[in-house]
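Researcher: Good morning. I'm working through a list of sequences from a screen, and I'd like to move beyond sequence-only analysis. For each chain I'm collecting a predicted structure so we can compare shapes side by side. This is the next one on the list. No need for commentary yet; just the structure.
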Amino acid sequence: MAIKQELVEEIRSRANIVDVVSTYIPVTKKGRNHFAVCPFHDDHNPSLSISEDKQIFKCFVCGAAGDVFGFVSKYDGVSYEEAIRKVANLIGYDDPGLHVKSYERQVDENLVPLYGCITDLHKFYQYGLSIEEGEIARKYLEDRQISAEQIAKFGLGYALKDGTKSINYLKEKGYSLKNIEDIGISYAKLQGMNDSNAGRLIFPIKDASGQVVGFSARRIEDNDTAKYVNSPETKIFSKGNILYNMDNAKTTLKHDKFLYVVEGFMDVFAIDSLGINSVVGLMGTAMTKTNAEQLKRLNVEMFDAAGVSYRLVSKPGELKDADEILKKEGPDALRSYINTLVDPFTFALNYYENVAPLGSVEERKKVISHFGPMLVNAKTKIELDNYIYRLATVTNFEAQAIRDYVEDLRSKKTVKEEAPVQFTGYSRQSLAKINKDMRKLTNAESLALKLMLSSKEAVEYYEKNIKYFYNEVYLQIANYLSDYVATYGDINVPGLITQIEMSDNPKKEDMVNELTSFSLEKEQSKYNENIMNDCNNVIQDERRRIYERKQLLEASVGKSNEEKARMLDDYLKRTNKIE
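Model: Good morning. Structure tokens for this chain:
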């Protein structure tokens, strides 16, 4: 890690989580803990618990959790390392180990010249917009109603028609031809290098920290060349990892509590012209998983598969984009349009009703199938009835037929969730017994892990006797805990959280959630070797049963569903699992 662990612990020892959180949101003391309205979801009652004793926070509604650095990271939408620096600044602590530029901290040092090269090129493009030749670009921007303030805010520029000038400028600044090639604007040819953006309006593309990483260059003369020339994928630029204007939006999002996601630059400018800064644009691609994760870090509640809840702008029959509405109908019309928000279900129904009415039976079946998971997870009967009624209207299927389909999906979902080994045609009695065994295993592993968080002796017992957990998150925590104790000779939950947060482990959020939940339990588990022995006995027994069931599953390959079910029932009876 770029910031040494010793320095992190020094900052942590000086920072009080209650004081830090209080600089962001109002905090109230109740008993030993402090509480606040959670800023990470639409909270109306104080559901964020802050423990001054343990120096951690936890929202038991949305699950947001972590230490003092984790709070700042989530609230400000910055990396964990940057949050450490912010906390140090808040408490007035300084150290040379904190002063490392972010891109030098995160990438290979060989890429640092590329950042310098592209930054200087951006300055040259801005210069190009300001001189006489840049008048054509300035006139274009004026015609598109892009203000001088927006030009400065978004760093727009103009690439001179003589494409050798920008190349020579960079060479004079000391950059090599390889550097220039690697930022993606030109490649060495026999006739020399020429800027591929020459004669175009320049939109700099920045990462979330504000560092220029690429360009989109727009044609401003009426000719047969491509409308846009975009930076290729380079060592410092991947368009699937970028959301345009993220660097500006993240500074206002925590106050606005919303974020508009639009298609491109002009739509960003259109909404920005309304005084709304919390807007980002896609880079000519569909929403990527990386984009969704970026939004998650900005405290927008997650997109479906990535974990984020959202609404969509939808005005039935309206097919114009934000920029077009602004130019043709004015700011009031655009403001009205972007404030017409609906849930994803309504958005899809509006689409099928107003844009692409459903035709064939197969098309209608696909729509019902697409919304199946949402119907199954409806929270109330009223909500489900509403979904079914509206789907029936759009698809022309009978409401009862859709209801029967939902019930069928629910029964299959129950089978999938309950059965640790997938048998088709099992008996409910067998399933109940297996499910009970899995709960026993989870409870035993959970208790053992809690004991480990309270005692080095329990960690040693785990390493010697239990050795691994079946639950993947518990196993990962145990591994980090063992390493932490081996390194520091003691157990410190906030310190352990730091180790996890600073890693690239994809399960780190789950681990932090479990750690904070364990730590904030009213009844704290204390090490007792007899209890640890009991946990170990249950864990070993259930591991053996899982192994035997997997063998049974392998032996049942090729057999009928009825035969598979009979084999499972016989096995459970032999092992006294069914009376």
